[in-house]
Amino acid sequence: MVRKNKGKEEKFEKWEKLRPDTKKSVLAITFGGAATVLFLSSIGKAGPLGGALFSGLDTLFGLGFYLVPALMAIVAVVFLFSREDKLIGLTLSGAVLFVIAGLGTIDIIFPDKAGLTGSLVGLVEVPFGYVAALVIGFTALAASLLVTLNVPLKLRLPARKNAEESRAVSEIKEAAAPKIAEPASDVAYEKASTLVEGEAGKEKEVMAVRRVAPAMSKNYKTPPLSLLKSGTDKPSAGDLRANANIIKRTLDGFGIPVEMGEINIGPKVTRYTLKPAEGVKLSRILALNQDLSLALAAHPIRIEAPIPGKSLVGIEVPNKSAALVRLGSLMAYADFQNSGPLAFALGRDVTGEPIFADIAKMPHLLIAGATGSGKSVAIHSLILSLLYKNSPATLKFILIDPKRVELSAYEGIPHLVSPVITEAKKTVGVFRWAIAEMEKRYETLLKAGARDIQSYNSKNKNEQLPYVVLVVDELADLMASHGREVEGSIVRIAQMARATGIHLVLSTQRPSVEVITGLIKANITSRVAMQVASQVDSRTILDMAGAEKLLGGGDMLFVSSELSKPKRIQGAYVTEEEIKKAADFLLENNDWTSEDTPGFEAPSEIGGKDLFENYIEDGSDDSLYEEAVNVVREAQKASASLLQRRLKVGYARAARLLDIMEERSIVGPGDGAKPREVYVERVASSE
């Protein structure tokens, strides 16, 4: 007995291991074949065994015999086309009840015509009477048929534009229907419009973020928030329940049972969450990316497994139509207004919630992506966010724009340390000035006994150090022309400048290892990856795949030291017209001079040179420069061979030191075979 029971259990376990679709197919074929055999036996075409089978069933069922093959055919069709996996037992139970109810009803209407089984069931007429028994019989017939077919009884069909989507929705069980989260963007846009339009006649209400400006900048006028547009458009995600059903069916088809969860509608993508059954490997779900994309007719889709902080898997599907995330609507949030001086608006995440970041916490940012992916717009959003929160007394910008057209709109605003830098050669001087300013600030902090710029400014209300944000719009061009100097300067600033309030924002459209080197990545942990062409480019930026599946147009992955995994964000959008209006307002309403910032000394012009030219070849990066000057002063002559002998260096380094001294008017220019003139005494006397 024990062995027999074990054998039955093993067979049952083997049956349970079959895929749900396979089980239904086997049952559909079985019931279809049985129905055909019964029909053939009723017309004498099933041989002697079929005839004996018909005789036995005719004795049991009488006229109700014909219900059996008909119902078996219906059950076969149900199994063949059903999309539910766990209703096999209910379907069979409904079929048995339908046969029993049918036999009883036939016996009530036609006594002694439903065989032995019908006679037994028809006894219900004795206690209830003829009419009530008929009502019971037809009620049981209808109920069992609905159970068998698994369809609801609808007295009125609701009007639908798309019949196919309506049918897909009706097939989802009510208990398993996913919860659809309302997009947060609608509320946000309403708040933004309320802040901007609530009291249009009052400048105080329009200039909502003015109160975050520091107290010492009383003469500074912040641009009004009304200069920036606040979006009111909404995303269109299509039929959410139908898409959820497609995802569930597709995964079930590959033997991955899942339970659908909440649906979040974002500006550009909609995230469908699901919980896989226990024991399902996440790698199996990740491998079905292309299959899900085909089933949903959407490309590209991104699978986040798992969602950070949740035991769920997220499938991000592009919306039918995207919603613009306006910078003005984000800046109207109280979270932004009450944040630190270096906070800026990044955009909205896949749930529609606003995302803000703080450069002071990063403390440097790298933005990379293909052409047209939204890098320049992200930089403009960052710059405008900081301009709205800071006066020139608290923030200084250095803008480097090798392309000459992206950052030219800010030319002349009072926050700039110098005019927008467009020449790659001057960039070397900019970075050297930043390093010199960093070292100078560390000396200032040391004398004041302050740990960082925040503590220093809190102690010195009358002479505060402003933050300095150095923005590079195209790093690739600088790395191609002055790679060694630029990389070394970036690494040094990234390693040491945080406490002094100097921050880097780097952008590049060529995410290659020649541009984003290992040293730069190691020291700049906060990165934004826009859409890229390949997985290799994504790994170059983020050290992981994912950016190749973005949609472009501001769609980004943001990673920082505070995030365990990249966060998908739709970046804030700002138009060229809005940028121009804000810059023009700053130019027309603010007359700021360097005297208005007592804690900051800008690079000055020496000898008629431009601001940073004095730092381009200042010799500060050569430890032998001062010694070389002393050699020339003592010898009262200057030549490369002299420096080679005295300093024990090669010709290239000696010639470079000589060129630097000539540039700084320490020695005269070379004139063939004549020796160079030495001006050291003249320079010393003038000093």
Describe the structure.
This protein is α/β, with parallel strands linked by helices and 687 residues long. The protein folds into 4 domains: 18-154, no CATH class; 235-318, Threonyl-tRNA Synthetase, Chain A, domain 2 (2-Layer Sandwich); 355-587, P-loop containing nucleotide triphosphate hydrolases (Rossmann fold, 3-Layer(aba) Sandwich), CATH 3.40.50.300; 617-686, Winged helix-like DNA-binding domain superfamily/Winged helix DNA-binding domain (Arc Repressor Mutant, subunit A, Orthogonal Bundle), CATH 1.10.10.10. It is built from 27 helices and 14 strands. Residues 155-177, 185-216, 594-599, 604-608 and 682-687 have low confidence and may be disordered. ATP binds at residues 369-376. Pfam families: FtsK_alpha (PF17854), FtsK_gamma (PF09397), FtsK_SpoIIIE (PF01580).
Number of helices: 27
**Corresponding CATH superfamily of the largest domain:** P-loop containing nucleotide triphosphate hydrolases
User: What coarse outline follows from CA principal-axis ratios?
Assistant: elongated
The average pLDDT score comes to 78
- Spatial gap, N to C terminus: 112 Å
Keywords:
5-stranded mixed β-sheet, DNA binding, elongated, WH-like_DNA-bd_sf, FtsK domain-containing protein, alpha/beta, about 675 residues, about 45% helix, WH_DNA-bd_sf, Rossmann fold, ATP binding
